[in-house]
## 1
Amino acid sequence: MITLRQLHFLVAVADTLNFSRAAEVCNVTQPTLSAGIKELEDRLGVQLVERTRRSVMLTALGEDVVNRGRALLLEAEAIEVLAAAHRNPGEGNLRLGAIPTVGPYLIPSALPLIRQHFPRLKLFLREEITESLIEGLTQGRLDLILIALPFETGSLEITKLFQDGYQLATPPRETPPVVAGPDGLATGDRLMLLERGHCLQRHALQAYPHRHLEQDESFSATSLTTLVSMVSEGLGITLLPNLAIDAGLASRGEVRLTPLPDACPRQIALAWRPKSARRDVFLKLAELLKKKRHGEKACTP
């Protein structure tokens, strides 16, 4: 019978397309990993991996086996997590993924409160764009993700935390200063935004559904900090989320901020796999994050 260890080796090869790196991932020697892959192929009577001196690739059947193997490994891990959760649900490692426009502006300030309630919980934070976070969660690489809605999340279980509105950021020496009217930004306004792939890029353009806001295609940033720097140099205007502003993103007076109370906010949420054994822990973490945010600034859940 095939073993989980063999499947683990195969999935590592699929992820790295390199036997040496796959062996490092599995914490075994390369000969041990190669032997495990060979044993799996012999057991099944088919070739799963094509290997030359220069490249490694999976056969078509190998791809299918990897997909099924991931599911089996995830279920096996879920069994272990289930047992551990029943023993000590608030202990152990927790792999939390967060989008870059939320994680660094919420998690650090919330950590003391989280540690107070879960002193034996080790929180590992990883920042990625939303699509990568969802993939990491469904594949078992992450336990919990912190994202912004709307975004297609499939069958994941979601709990909403709070709404995050925007302010208009303009150069500090703008003459005359840019002041948003009662309807916010006007149709045709061009914004400097994060590069495509960041959900905030899409959310900002949808802040006023009845206005046709456009992105300044001459420039896109990889971080909110870069956006602030560009605006401060007089290169354009942008929308900054209140969460980042409240965390001090623009505290040095680099940009002029104008509230946009009529802008459609994004919804900050936690998501996890359905039927997770640590669901109660995740719900408690959601309460703590909401409490931390509400304690800093009133917001509408």
## 2
Amino acid sequence: MFMNESNYELLSQHYPIGYVNLIDKMDQGMTSEARLVVTTEGRYILRKLKNEDQGMTEYNIYKRLEPYTITPEIVLSKQETPYIRFDDSHYNLQRYIESRPRQSSIDFYQLGQTVSVFHYAMRDAHHIIGQKDRFCLQSMWDDVKELKNGFDIIQAIQHPVERAISYCHEKSGFIHADLGVWNILNASTGVYIIDFGEVRCGNPHFDLAAILTSTIDWDAEKEHSIASLREFYRGYLNNGNHVDATILQENFHLWMVRCMVATIKQFGINERTCEYCNMNMRRLHQINDIINPA
């Protein structure tokens, strides 16, 4: 159960945010639940967490990124804690940042810069508690193979899945691990990264594949996509970061395959999930033509 109207006063008791006028639903992602909180002091985002470890991890990440201004502030409670507990659930409160609609144009150079700073700042974050991979491909694939229907689509994706499982990429730093456009705020003041509920040690190319897959215009001319990727590279290749085209291509493959298998696991095999898998299979071929020229 999420906090509701009856808990307005409780939230004000815990946080120095003035009088709470409204708590409203927002779009929910895969890794968090969120509410918009409107108060006499401003607007905030109240997020439900998995546990207190996530609360501490997200606050430690925020403090590490604070000098770079690429993630919203996590507000400390009146008790100086980065989260509160209510009905056996944990919540944190973040400053609200106005973001443009997802379909609005993206500055790929600025996006690359932001991801570059994040990877640089997280490179030696040894005190951060990494999260368990909730979307382990091997585990999800074992479950999907047991489904009684949809033999054709399972057979069609079997080779790409087994190939993705075989990849062994160096885990050279902490990654976001769910860095899709849904966890990016494209604001007038810059690009911000949110929702660190999946952060773990991994290969940075996995984040690059996730953000580029979800921001590239797949319906545009190939030259347009290549230009977007080059702009992203130009922003990302700072702070000692680099991009290996082969490893990036493999991570595109890994990310898309994980998405396919996770979708089937969550929603089963039906017309919509089969259509989604077929679309991703087509994009796997498209990405080869985009990465190599860029």
## 3
Amino acid sequence: MADAATRAEQEVARVRDDPAGRYALAQEFYRHATGPRRRYGRAELSFLRWSLARGVLAPETSDPPGSPWWRAVNERLLRDKAEAALLCAGAPGVAGAPSVECWVDFIRSPAPRRWYRAHNASIVAGYLGHEDLAAAERQVERFMMNVALLRVLFTHAMLAEPRLALGRLAPLGPLMADPRHRNVQLFLDRGRSFPPEYPVTAPVEETVLDEHALARVLDYGLIAPRLTALYAFSAASLDQPRLTTLLDDGVPAYAWPRVDRPVWYIGNTGLHLRAVARVSGTRLLWEPSPLRTARRPRRR
């Protein structure tokens, strides 16, 4: 009998060019489980539906083709979960990566903190393992990759280290970030933040300025002032010290050259952002950029 790692790779290979099959495999991990594990798929499956709608998981032979980077990161998550589930079901072998061990821990004893640690261990491993693919994407796509990462790290911290994530608002953290509840989609939903198509042809500046007001409050008012501490917490929690290198002096830097750093300052304007930062016990750290332009009409 093949070991768990080999069988997991075969399962993922079977759906590699089948976006709906990818979703079914992700859904199966939760739907076919018994007990409390069934309730943990809400945020992950919501994000996957957004990815499917954009077309990033489409085969590379499609017209337009999918994204090699998004496909690779999604595969890492699918494979880690599949291998862990097989190991827990008695398949031979040992966990082939620390991220698989995290999923084994979650399956054996489901809990919100264990789910975040397992999920984020797979996602971060995917990011770190595919920087070359990320570098080949358009600037606006790389911007979205960085935002997706910082939000999922922040949501984990809201539950595991709410004081770090929310300051004075810490009591709200565990209530809002529980992956079993609908509230978590407020923080992980991308539909309100970014264009629904792939590839995105609009300039990154336009994409930033078109972001939903609530999303900008979250990204710039709550998360940005805490990024250094947030990435340090996540690096320690996931035993991934390289994670801290994805910041450049507190600014997201995954597949992001320093010369493009001013892009991150574009959305960091407005008294409301300063007010949110102040209420949560911090202040805005990024200065407004000379690249700031007039707001364009919002997409409908």
## 4
Amino acid sequence: MLVGRAPGVAVLLTPAGAVAGVDVRGAPVGTRELDLLDPSTLVQRVHAVVLAGGGLAAADGVVRWLAERGHGFPVGVRPFEVVPIVPAAAALGLASGDGYAACEAASDDVPTALAVVGDTAVGLVVVDAEVGPAECRRVAMSAHDGFARAGVTVPATVFAVATGAPTGTPLNDLCTTAADALEHAAQNP
């Protein structure tokens, strides 16, 4: 996993794919590909998650960056016949960013949580665990408590992404850690 940042956008890159979940509360205005995170869908892994300011154009740059490198859901037999799965959410009231530039600046210094708060809020937590889509969604739901504890009361979208490491950490512990991490990220942007 890699994290890239540019003004107005943060990107978690998982080129090999990672299990993710999402929880949406309130009336989000800017989201993309969230339905693909439903545990019942065919696509079980994402290749990036985008937290954007202002709008979703940053996700287009992330998709292009991944596709140029052949990372994505295979749709053909030849290399580069892929569709990158890149769910995204925007925190409105902030400036938009360049997703491609964020990917170019990516490093393996991955924080436990990221939070972007404007007129709406978006957050992301990374859990060191091997869990399925339903468990990832449960972690995202619990992480939302971190926004509430930090005093963030605007509509919010929270993603959870699992590293895939078989740590054996119980789900309840993952949920508690995720809420603590998002609270800290929201208080210290």
